[in-house]
């Protein structure tokens, strides 16, 4: 649906009033490499997608906030004074959580609003539909309430909404990528200091293909928290040897080899090895991309997947099958799971001449081997959150 159609749907839903209808958009994200690194204080390399969440918003004359989505059936109305009083367990907890954090950070919500969300990101696919809703809400409300519109602050505030209000213990990567993406650029983010730079992601004849396994990510929350705890445990043990260590990803591979035996437990060794090596792979990827060596970048993507499968153990049968089939296509330089794991999506870098073949052959083999129908999106790298003006 284009912006005009969305605006029309908005007025059909909410009627006319004299206030201006404003339109904002935040993308989804794909992580190119650097998985399960953000909460370990290292480097990640995500990129914003060309599709995301559009928010159509207009001030009301009263103190009611109306929530409506073109994708989901649940709708709600809350009073400005009741923001954050009751959690619904529904999708509106994301925008409401953001409102709570905006108020805590010092910008009051002074009036009522009509909100209509239109999402293009498949839910639960690991492409950050929730971060996209959070960030677009924060950006729009801070703009309309004349608060400080700073995309780094917006990422942090959105992450707090997710951690504290929604109750999911995610790191900063998703919100940061959605808020700070730029066309044809990946984002090299240092998750400890939040220093970041854009890295050119022009891949010439090669295309990114996102493959959705359509496997529901059932286990993801508990397993995610378990991985975080294991990393904390490792850090506590390693700190006894190296008191200055604040995060696992600060360890170089050489330091890790020296200290590995102190961890004792095999699981902790595997988790930590993944973190240390994956962090190094992100930096090697930036070098490869800077020198235009896509073959080297593809190999790093492959190594990342294998480590997530064997050491961090967050892959699953469906992701492994899709990656395995993807690598059989001659034009595939690299293929890996992306996001938290246990389902969701893969990302592959594929020569444009082989894209059709990829979609057909990987799709067919995936269906045959898993019984599930995969979906594929050939996508470019888009912009971060913004207002869509003049459309
Ligand atoms: C999820 C979380 C992110 C990050 C990834 C794994 O997407 O929301 O913060 O930890 O998993 O890299």
UniProtKB/TrEMBL annotation:
ATP binds at residues 69, 124-130. InterPro entries: Galactokinase, Galactokinase_bac, Galactokinase_CS, GalKase_N, GHMP_kinase_C_dom, GHMP_kinase_C_sf, GHMP_kinase_N_dom, GHMP_knse_ATP-bd_CS. Keywords: ATP-binding, Carbohydrate metabolism, Cytoplasm, Galactose metabolism, Kinase, Magnesium, Metal-binding, Nucleotide-binding, Transferase. Signal peptide: none annotated. The active site is at 174 (proton acceptor). The record marks 29 as: Transition state stabilizer. Transmembrane segments: none annotated. GO terms for molecular function: galactokinase activity. Pathway: Carbohydrate metabolism; galactose metabolism. Residues 8-58 form the Galactokinase N-terminal domain. It holds the Pfam family GHMP_kinases_C. Its main location: cytoplasm. Residues 286-367 form the GHMP kinase C-terminal domain. Its EC number is 2.7.1.6. Catalyzes the transfer of the gamma-phosphate of ATP to D-galactose to form alpha-D-galactose-1-phosphate (Gal-1-P). NCBIfam families: gal_kin (TIGR00131), PRK05322.1 (NF003705). Belongs to the GHMP kinase family. GalK subfamily. This is Galactokinase. It comes from Paenibacillus provencensis. The gene is galK.
């Amino acid at each position: 649906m284009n912006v005009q159609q969305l605006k029309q749907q908005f007025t059909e839903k909410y009627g006319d009033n004299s206030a201006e209808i404003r339109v904002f958009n935040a993308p989804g994200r794909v992580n190119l490499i650097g998985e399960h690194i953000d909460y370990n204080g290292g480097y990640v390399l995500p990129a914003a997608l060309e599709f995301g969440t559009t928010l159509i918003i207009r001030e009301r004359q009263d103190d009611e906030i109306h929530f409506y989505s073109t994708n989901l059936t649940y709708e709600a109305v809350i009073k400005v004074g009741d923001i954050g009083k009751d959690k619904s367990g529904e999708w509106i907890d994301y925008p409401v959580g953001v409102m709570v954090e905006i108020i805590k950070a010092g910008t009051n919500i002074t009036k009522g609003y009509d909100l209509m969300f239109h999402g293009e990101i498949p839910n639960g696919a690991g492409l950050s539909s929730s971060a996209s809703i959070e960030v677009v809400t924060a950006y729009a409300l801070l703009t309309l309430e004349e608060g400080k519109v700073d995309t780094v602050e917006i990422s942090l505030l959105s992450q707090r909404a997710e951690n504290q209000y929604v109750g999911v213990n995610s790191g900063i990567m998703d919100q940061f990528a959605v808020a700070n993406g730029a066309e044809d650029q990946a984002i090299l983010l240092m998750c400890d200091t939040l220093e970041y730079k854009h890295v050119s992601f022009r891949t010439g004849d090669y295309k990114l293909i996102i493959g959705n396994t359509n496997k529901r990510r059932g286990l993801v929350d508990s397993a995610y928290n378990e991985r975080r705890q294991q990393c904390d445990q490792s850090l506590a043990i390693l700190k006894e040897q190296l008191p200055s260590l604040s995060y696992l990803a600060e360890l170089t591979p050489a330091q890790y080899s020296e200290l590995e035996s102190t961890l004792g437990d095999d699981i902790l060794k595997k988790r930590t090895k993944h973190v240390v090596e994956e962090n190094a792979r992100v930096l090697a990827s930036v070098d490869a991309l800077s020198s235009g060596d896509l073959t080297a970048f593809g190999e790093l993507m492959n190594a990342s997947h294998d480590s997530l499968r064997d050491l961090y153990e967050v892959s699953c049968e469906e992701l492994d099958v899709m990656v395995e089939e993807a690598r059989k296509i001659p034009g595939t330089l690299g293929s890996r799971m992306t996001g938290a794991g246990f389902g969701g999506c893969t990302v592959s870098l594929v020569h444009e001449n082989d894209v059709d073949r990829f979609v057909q052959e990987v799709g067919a083999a995936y269906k045959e081997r898993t019984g599930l129908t995969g979906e594929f999106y050939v996508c470019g790298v888009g912009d971060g959150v913004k207002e869509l003006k003049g459309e």
